[in-house]
Write a sequence for this structure.
């Protein structure tokens, strides 16, 4: 098992550009989520999904869209990037009936 | 919603000393309290967790204590080693649901 795989690892965007951060897990986990990590702010929840076809907003959802068409994939879309979205983004998954979260290696995004 | 406060933000110790990181939570319905270790350039990794029906849990050099009445929990690392240097996060959740994280503690262990 590869676990939780995030791509790309690094990305630089210009203000106003769009992009999709990819997250895939091969552990058949039902629950998946996206966090952003900023200095001194810890990890803040952006969006989460409890299963294919179901998504919900977290603490800081503005400027981000998600979809969950399959159990394996949970992409995060930035429709119009802003400098305030410069951050490190982590995807995490949790097996059904369990509580331990497994994190990917992160995507470092810079918006200039 | 849940609010998790974590202290201190940085902690420097000498190798062999003990380190203690403390967290408080606001939602009395939270019942799962994990601790994550994040090394530079990597994602957080679970190191120990505790549920609300347990007061203390140990795993070799690390232990976690929980005081439900006061709504606080702590991470204890004994006999610290340089490889313990990392950022540590506490979190709280109501079981199978979203995790709310503290802001993290950077632990530096000097040889």
């Amino acid at each position: 098992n590869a676990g939780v795989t995030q791509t790309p690892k690094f990305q630089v965007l210009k203000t106003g550009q769009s992009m999709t951060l990819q997250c895939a897990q091969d552990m058949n986990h039902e629950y998946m989520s996206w966090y952003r990590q900023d200095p001194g702010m810890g990890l803040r929840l952006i969006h989460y999904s409890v299963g294919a076809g179901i998504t919900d907003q977290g603490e800081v959802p503005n400027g981000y869209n998600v979809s969950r068409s399959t159990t394996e994939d949970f992409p995060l879309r930035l429709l119009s990037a802003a400098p305030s979205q410069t951050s490190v983004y982590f995807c995490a998954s949790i097996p059904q009936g369990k509580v331990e979260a497994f994190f990917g290696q992160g995507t470092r995004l810079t918006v200039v | 919603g849940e609010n998790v406060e974590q202290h201190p933000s940085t902690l420097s110790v000498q190798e062999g000393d003990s380190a203690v990181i403390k967290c408080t939570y606001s939602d009395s319905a939270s019942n799962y309290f994990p601790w994550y270790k994040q090394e530079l350039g990597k994602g957080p990794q679970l190191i120990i967790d505790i549920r609300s029906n347990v007061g203390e849990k140990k795993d070799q050099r690390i232990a976690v204590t929980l005081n439900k009445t006061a709504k606080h929990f702590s991470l204890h690392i004994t006999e610290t080693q340089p490889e313990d240097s990392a950022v540590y996060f506490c979190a709280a959740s109501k079981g199978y649901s979203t995790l709310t994280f503290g802001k993290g503690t950077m632990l530096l262990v000097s040889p």
User: Anything to note?
Assistant: The CA atoms of residues 27 and 101 of chain B lie 13 Å apart. The interface with chain A takes residues 1, 6, 9, 32, 34, 36, 41-46, 49, 89, 93, 95-96, 98-104 of chain B (CB under 8 Å).
